[in-house]
């Protein structure tokens, strides 16, 4: 009963944070990027929680249970990706005012490329959000012994209450609470207790094979695949871009992302060590994904078990809310606003879109038994189709709209083809998809000329996407003279 009360108090605290956020969300900018007013602590907390979802927490412990300390490679790839966003993108995004991936495409390449990228971004954010809702349902099912559909609805309803009420302000306030709960639950409670239960590090080394303590024990091919998928994919994750723009200055955005990356790397190591120690105390689990909950129930007393389960909930809820508001922001800003004008830039329009996205996510979570395959497809498509064009839009002034659309289509087509040939979980789809996008993007850029309206401009000098004409590039032989390009 004590553990259940702790979980209930945590859920009520999230709703209370939603009310406080609602009082601050007076404009669309407040709702989508917290008014761009976050200081170092709140910003770093928010950036960290978007990384540390169910995959990083429950999945990180599962990988540690199977492979030892090398199981941290998934979270490490995400951590490097979040730091890279601050180093590479903070300056350009702050100076340009862009906070969606499709808007970046539209400003350089015109509206068709923005619409095309919106489809991929919304699919990705929605499906990963669905995965988090299912994860929340799993945790609540364990704690309260209720049906998974009921548990998922309770978690979803909590997320919707605080997210729709205050948007990014509410999400940020809950992120700060979730950041502290995760830090306390994983670092201060679960890690030391399970290592002690296993007899300490010396006993763990004596009990387990040497590969459990090798940094490459999971396999170099898996390490390479995680890096390609999660490092590159995370750099163009809409949720990350949106959190970046919540910082009150470019300096806070850059250094906060770097600090967040360091924290997340330590979190990944902690999860892998928890799983490694769990392999000693629970050596015969049928399903490694149960390691987090089973280890917690074995080593934690009443009260602390509730705290650690709240940490798992926090991981899923913070990621889910960030992803869902990311999907709704893209729909509102890049799809609906150009059609409906300023009336679709209001807080009310943002709330309606967010609630609609949430309803779709809940319905999908009920319709599928496992969302892992869909999430894998979405993540592969995001990296394979959009990484090269987005980087080209921001860093290569010579790049053209024809090249962008060609790169997106080539990366998507090759990625899906290799999913059919090699399987959903193979390494080839994202590798060959990114390679195809790069070849097509560079080739088409060299044989076409950019739109004269934007040619030669740095990314931060580009006009708002509403002011960029809907051109798709001009063949080199027919091009009008353009400004010098770099």
TrEMBL record:
Presence of the UniProt keyword Transmembrane in the record: yes
Protein topology in the membrane: Multi-pass membrane protein
Primary localization: membrane
UniProt keyword list: Membrane, Transmembrane, Transmembrane helix, Transport
Transmembrane segments annotated in the record for this chain: 6-22, 43-65, 71-94, 115-144, 150-172, 179-198, 218-236, 257-278, 298-331, 352-368, 374-395, 402-424, 430-447
Alphabetized GO MF terms: transmembrane transporter activity
Gene Ontology cellular component annotations, sorted alphabetically: plasma membrane
Keyword Transmembrane helix assigned: yes
Pfam families noted in UniProt: SSF
Family of the protein in this entry: Belongs to the sodium:solute symporter (SSF) (TC 2.A.21) family.
Protein known as: Sodium:solute symporter
Lineage of source species: Bacteria, Bacillati, Actinomycetota, Actinomycetes, Kitasatosporales
